[in-house]
Design goal:
Elements: H1 12-39, H2 46-73, H3 76-96, H4 104-114, H5 118-140, H6 147-236, H7 239-265, H8 270-273, H9 277-292, E1 295-300, H10 309-330, E2 334-340, E3 344-345, E4 359-360, E5 362-369, H11 382-393, E6 397-403, E7 406-414
Parallel strand pairs: 1-2
Antiparallel strand pairs: 2-5, 3-4, 5-7, 6-7
Helix pairs in contact: 1-2, 1-4, 2-3, 3-4, 3-5, 4-5, 5-6, 6-7, 6-10, 9-10, 10-11
Length: about 425
Amino acid sequence: MTTADGPPLDGRAEFRARTLRGWDVAFYLLTAIGAVALLTDTGLRHGRLVVGLATLGALTAAYVAVGRRAARTARDDLITAYLALLVVAVGLVVWSSATGTLVLFIAYSQVWYFAQSRTRGVLWSVVLSAGVVVATVVREGLGWAEAPAAMAQVSIALAFAVLLGLWVTQVAEQGELRAQLLEELEATQAELGRSHHAAGVAAERERLAREIHDTLAQGFTSVVMLAQATAADVRRGAAERAEERLALIERTARDNLAEARALVAAFSPVELQSGGLTEALGRLAGRFERETGVEVDVVLAAELPGLDRDAEVILLRAAQEALSNVRRHAAAAHVRLVLDGGDQTRGQGTEGDDVSTSPTHAVALEVVDDGRGFDPSTTAGLGLQGMRERVTSGGGELDVTSSPDGTRVRVLVPTRPSTAPPDGATAPPGGAA
């Protein structure tokens, strides 16, 4: 956009290109009306009629050859040349007949249509009006004493043209500004959409990385360790033991294949499809004990009220990761896996935490081993980090404590509060409190 004396209006070329066809129609129509007015002027001498019609024809040719090109290209030299021709042509038409003033409607409009700024619009309007005054004085043979009356008449038209031109320019600029803001808004929305898409892709990649780590990677680790143990059994000649391990390898590989298919199909974990969380944890603990020889004590709650499938996935993946860490790092002889569905206490696991310890509806999972332990403050691998992100994303808590005597992993996942009345109480009729 421009100020009154600023540079050419931004977006003016687009405005001319959008409205050029309408201006064509208006120009040709008003030019034709001007020609008809000259032809119907009975008092017009033949010579002046020829000059007027020839001038209108020349103006039309100038508009086609120069004006339309100036409108499309916004070249300042073409605009100046066309407006100069317009002033001369209007002066000749007005000189030929008083009815020629009809072309002022299109002339003033084109001045503001082509003007590159408000200042130029006003200046060209003044020049055009001055040409009309001169043509009128010459046509009527007026003396210099009578010239002010003609100037006063044209000044009214000039004032109206300038005020209308400024108002129309203001409206056009506001429209251009709104169009520009709309384009910027659309571009911003498109960029925001691309950013959201990229963030979604990154989040989905991170989710898939956690899923693969918690499922396929752990399964392949089991296969590798069982294969190594089988090779050792074969070297010792323990064929029966080797066959047992080969059966475990086959079963683990089939489970991994099922997990891979579930990931591709975006289903819930295979273990949860064939039963609830307690059954899945029992199978997980049994397979871990057979593969590693580590004794596993399992204590599972009989009922888990208010636990949805997402929470079950979080607890199952946490148990898988905890047992995988025991397998790879702990060198433990005994593991205890506990799933408790009673009211739990939040924030009690980390020493020094200033959080509420009021009971809440939640399910707690604990995996405790008697291995060599580690320092949780300095050791944070991908598995532990992914476990914490998964748990916290579900509104839960993860607490890991470790010492040279073993490690304890505790996961707390909130559940939906039960709407059933407590034992011995009677629900009020109609649910009223």
